[in-house]
Design brief:
With about 220 residues, this protein is an alpha+beta fold.
Length: about 220
């Protein structure tokens, strides 16, 4: 059983022509980003707390990310020592946080995730967040990100592949306060492949993203 209940529709994001999951050692099937992702180790709190993640290097106007105290992340992404690559990883992390913030705020048009995404990724993220709003649910639990692989291409775009561990991530329903704790399966581990581009504000925005559950690349 997936982390997210079936009533929360899967999100499918379009893959960039130059970036496919075959590069991750997986097949061509894909499911939407966060199709069952949810974060936070303490599944009881609704009080917002400031994001502990980086705010972003050298760019003004970045939105503040305030998340419920039970929405928790472990980003096991290594610093590369390359300023450009580290900026890509930072902004990819902030997009992930911003999507969960929009879900917690129950706002499909929240400016946070739109600051870090454009095009197909932004449009599909809006649909995904709307599913949570429609069902009055949000994310809770702990989500871990790891096994990242990043390439800056000749055209200036960035290709980012990474894993997500959703084994401690669940859905919380706002009306009842109930957390849907589901068992760990191979589908608790998801591989993502995304395309990012640096915009005129100096932000690495995610333009396209695909995901696949149960990838051997991500399973322990």
């Amino acid at each position: 059983m997936n982390r997210r209940p079936t009533l929360l529709a899967a999100l499918t994001l379009t893959v960039a022509a130059a970036l496919t999951l075959s590069a991750c050692g997986s097949d061509d099937s894909s499911e939407g980003k966060n199709n069952d992702k949810i974060a936070g180790a303490d599944p009881t709190g609704d009080k917002a707390s400031p994001s502990t993640g980086p705010s972003g290097p050298g760019t003004t106007g970045r939105p503040k990310t305030d998340l419920p105290s039970d929405v928790i992340y472990e980003f096991d992404w290594k610093k590369t020592g390359d300023a450009q690559k580290d900026a890509v990883l930072n902004d990819a992390e902030q997009r992930i946080r911003a999507v969960d913030m929009a879900i917690a705020k129950q706002d499909p048009l929240d400016k946070g995730y739109r600051f870090y995404s454009e095009g197909t990724a932004a449009a599909e993220s809006q649909k995904y967040i709307q599913e949570f709003v429609d069902h009055k649910a949000r994310t809770t639990g702990l989500t871990r990100y790891y096994n990242e692989s990043l390439t800056i291409k000749d055209d200036g775009t960035a290709a980012l592949v990474y894993c997500e561990d959703q084994s401690k991530a669940f859905n919380k329903f706002l009306k009842t306060g109930k957390t849907d704790v589901t068992p760990v399966t191979k589908d608790s581990y998801v591989v993502y492949a995304g395309t990012l581009r640096k915009n005129d504000k100096g932000v690495w925005v995610t333009e396209r993203l695909i995901s696949q559950r149960g990838s051997a690349k991500c399973r322990p």
